[in-house]
């Protein structure tokens, strides 16, 4: 039986992924963009891949905002709000949404943009 009801996204107040692993992967450049929108948002900020990696490696627990799930059996995404001195010598208030990929070998970046 197919349901026509939409799943209301679920949220929780604890991270789904070990921040230490996210930082470790970011420091070694093991970051993948989840789609062209993330790529475009990064380019609009004039961030190079190294800037994104350094930003992710600078995250700490106080930046954690929430964890979100968009489908009942789908992955969880951790959301961080972080102030980061970007390449334009301005401090950006960033919204960062990520998950760890299969076997925790890569950070999958789902959102990376200024807070709206």
TrEMBL record:
One of its GO terms (biological process) is quorum sensing. It holds the Pfam family MqsR_toxin. This is Motility quorum-sensing regulator MqsR. InterPro entries: MqsR_sf, MqsR_toxin. Gene3D superfamilies: 3.30.2310.40.
